[in-house]
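pipeline/complex-builder :: batch 7 item 3
reading input block
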Amino acid sequence: MRGTDRGEATATEAQNDETAARGPAAECPRCGSKLPAGAKECAECGSRGWFTTSRQTTVVLSLILLCAQFLLTGFLNRKFEGREREMARQWYDRGVAELAAGRAEAALNPLRTALVYSRNNPQYELRLGEALVAGEHYGEAKTYLLTLLERQPGSSELNLELARLAAREGDVSEAIHYYEASLYGVWESNGEQQRRAARRELIAYLSDHGQKAEALAHTMSYAANLPPDAGLHIQAGELFLAEQNYDHAEEQFREALALAPHNAAALAGAGRAALAKGEYADAERFLNRANRANPSDGSLAEPLALARALVSLDPSAPGLTDTESQRRAIHAYQLAALRLDTCMGSVESGANSPLRVLAEREKPIDMKLRRKRGPPNDPPRSTIVEFALDAEQAVTAACGSGSVEDRALTILAVHRSGGGQ
Amino acid sequence: MSAETGKGRTAGPASRARGWLGRLISGSLLSEGQFFFFLSILIGLFGGLSVVCFQLAIDSTRFWLLTSSLRPPAVRVLLAPTLAGLVVAFLVQRFFPRVRGSGVNQTKAAVFIFDGHIPFNTVIGKFLTCALGIGAGHSLGPEDPSLQIGAGIASALGRRMQLSRDKLRLIAPVGAAAGLSAAFNAPISAVLFVIEEVIGNWSAGVLGAVVISAVASVTVERWFRGDAPLFRIPASHFRGLSDLPAFILLGIAGGYFSVFFLKLVLSARPRLKRLPQWTQYAQPAAAGLLIGMIGLRFPQVMGAGYGYMDQAMHDQYGWQLLLLLAALKLAATSFSFVSGTPGGLFAPTLFMGAMLGGAVGGFQQHYFPVLHAVSVGPYALVGMGVLFAGILRAPMTSIFMIVELTGDYSVIVPVMTANAIAYLISRRNQNVSLFDELSRQDGMNLPSMEERREETPLRAENAMRQFGAPVLSAGNTVREGREAVRGARESTLLVRGEFGWGSFPAAALESAGAKLGEDATIGSLCTQIGLPTLHPDEPLETALRLIEDHPLLPVVRRSNRDILQGVLGLQDILQAYRRSEEESEQWMT
């Protein structure tokens, strides 16, 4: 570049060049052609004698103009963007309001408009995805959400929406895949809370689709990572209860009670878990406390009555005297015999039906119990109890459940044979 | 003088720096070529800023006239394009007559006719009328006007900077690339389009400047408007050959759709132009009214419609609606364009392509699920490229544009396949491209870039003939030479010697024995030595340049200059050109 040497030349030399360019024997400073004497314009490139000054001025003016245009554009753009954001927010709010009111179809247009003015806003996009799913635009929702997911592959919210979409479409494996992806992804806000909610949703979904083992595994995982919060432990306990895992359920309710000893829901849960486990005294105690803590809870009446009946009827309860055990056994027998008679009167039973067989079994017991005098323990207490529980179980199968006491005896019958509630 | 010099010497680095800066910006430090590159950056920055302002103007006009809703009130939908059409027509007829149309041809005219000159009031007029027309809902796009705005700014700067005529001629495409690059947010496509459709060749000098200005422009645009692509690209991708038949069908459908659009526009435009002068004031308004009527039920067809293309790509419409939108957009764009409303065809072309592609994809999904392995989105995407290739007939741009917009190279196979089919169908059914025909309708005889692309340059091998005599060695005697060429019909004989190739008239061999003796060497007979040689693949223009007064030029093998492959005389060259012309005419008919 000729400027390498010239760059070190002084300003005076440059001025000399300029003067020379105007002189009679000068060369055109641009194209190097010889300028005729006195010529004001280069014949080759058209530049004029005052070219240097003019170009210099133009460059300076252009740079000034560029700066001015930059500032002006920046100002206008910022103003316009502010306006766009405002409009986007208004349309978004309108869409969210429609969505909250259950009008998914009406929410679509405002949400789409919001996204026109605030493109790639993840919050708006997600809400539109939700609206599409809610509005049953499954095809569009899927494409839309997948597109968003490609941009944010770790988004838990998107995976959760896709999971719900797959669940609605009945694609169980895809739903589970997306649910699990949502658990291990990134949440925009309240990560732990949202992750727990998603896991609860997944557990419910797995349970509904008969995948008990997977549901239990997720519930265990859910329970293992809970912060000290009674409400969360209660939720975990409820999940275990639904999965008939009473030990873990009771453990969760007890943890909740350690944090909030008078929490009615925890007491009720613990009572139900104890009831299911056959710990009737504990169940009655918990349920009584729950009832005192929240007397208006109507759902407690039945388990409480059942627990009380179980506590008062169980002839095998530990710590009973012989007399009390015998009294309970005979009471159970009387209840069962009466129920058997009633049931046999209402349903037809053949000669070899279980009810008829029980009726045959009842006769010698009844006869022996009616005797004024006879050997003690005849019939043996175990025979009486055995008959009572068998009868209750059979009658419940044939004629449905009876009174609270009958249901209590049926539960005892089931527990006797090793089953749960 | 000496005082000044002394002052300069004692002034120190600050003064020297000032002097250096002064020379830098005055151009005396930079060569003309370097200054041209500096100017390209300046043009890119100005172009980018202007296009950002242009987009803001369009969007603001839309808010103002049609509100922010995607479904504006009916009164506005009817009145906005109609009244805007009246105002635009008035401005065009009274103040800015050169702003009609898209702007691509005007830029080409600046390059090929007006020595790079685009009046600056064209830039202002284009900005105002397009912002008003597109913002009010006319079915046109901002890309081609941005191209012209960029070219106009470049031309104005070039003139103010007093560039040489050659450079001034090149400056308009540099600005065009800047404008298009910012409007599309796709610098590669912008550069390709300018090379393909405006300049028509890959001159290294201008290519550098075009690239620099496009990059500067898109950088400014992204600074202000963000770097998000025009569309959110659907997640599903082309999966392999099994998807290809569906895209072939799309190429065929797109090709015929393009032909229909081209025929409609190119036949309606001159008819409307021939109507009385007063109707020129009413035509844009009438077009606006018709568009408004369509917009009452289908607001998607109003304006550029990028938002709706995005929606089409995400399965938002059924295939029937997509097809209807493609047809309605075709009608709306035709109304707007032929009425003389200033605005571009890029965006409407992409819109129609997206809708048509989506419709074809949706149709196949519904009726031929075997053919259809992906969602509608990729069809809409490929459809855009298909119509770009079919209507604007810039095949390379149409391919790279889609790849650049998507950032997904997996789509390149279906895009190339479908675009090539659409391009060929369009080419076969509409001989002259849209831009070429529009320029002819406007009375300008601009070079056809399409024809230029398809020209196959004649080469030496197309004109050379077999040499009808043996090549003589310079060391041979006259007697040996006479024996060797006995019966040959060449009037000039070629000689190979230490001097390379030489020649002499064949008649000289007969008289040489008597004059010089039978044992004289052939080399001593040569009238021309060191003949320039050609290779078979060299252009025929090179032969014309070299032949001067040589009767024959030897065409030799590249691997061995001693092996003669043929000879070329002036007659051979002229005959080759004549043959080529005849073949070209036969092909056209």
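note: Residues 51-100 of chain A form the longest helix (50 residues).
queue -> next item
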